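To close the section, here is one more complete example, presented without commentary so you can practise reading it yourself. The ligand is FE2/S2 (inorganic) cluster.
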Amino acid sequence: MATESDSSRELTFEIFRFNPLDPGSEPRMQTYTLREEPYMTLFRALNRIREEQDPGLQFDFACRSAVCGSCGMMINGRPTLACKTLTSDLASTIRLHPLPAFKLIGDLSVDTGTWFREMGSRVEAWVHERQAFDPEAIEEPMDDDLAVAIYESDRCIECGCCVASCGVANTRGDFLAPAGMNRVARFMMDPRDGRSTGDWFEVVASDEGVFGCIGLMACQDVCPKELPLLEVYGYLRRRALGAAFVRKQR
Ligand code: FES
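Output:
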């Protein structure tokens, strides 16, 4: 009688290998094979490869549930979360590369943390309060639609998939990229933040900001949280043009 494992596919993984800390390491692709399991994710597959075939293979995971953002990688050329990807949705040959645009730690592991920390410092990604905090004050209500819009931007898990998909971010390290623009929009919308559109003007209305985007539109396609990144760009362009108009009137 045929068993489940008889009918399962033999998967071939072609995985990028390189250790930048090892002077003897050369970038190369390494091939592994694995019998597919029911409902197998790439998280499961990579862990099995590491446990059973190659303990030196580097990749990142933490939450296994599309929340921490650490498992972004190029899966058959597309930036995607590995923990959210079922092998059954892919062809039997699976090619894995690290996300471009970030510093390589080794194999499939990249340093997204430094990129996001530097971006957060550049745009001062914290609420610049209009007035000093008063613990005795009554909580100020926020309009529901605005609260939802801010929450929507805050759903970014900083996986770096949108940055990796962006042609401009891949060629220019100074570009704030979709994740940076989304962060700017989040604080621009926040009524508790005292920065005016004019204060944001230098950050947003430049080649490093919204006007650096050349409209390839891959960022929204690949975002695993389905954030409306193109709407974010539209919102920032409108705010930047509004600020430019006000400047011209002066
Ligand atoms: S392991 Fe956390 S997002 Fe994939």
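Once you have examined the tokens, check your reading against these statements. The mean pLDDT is 92. The chain has ten helices and seven strands.
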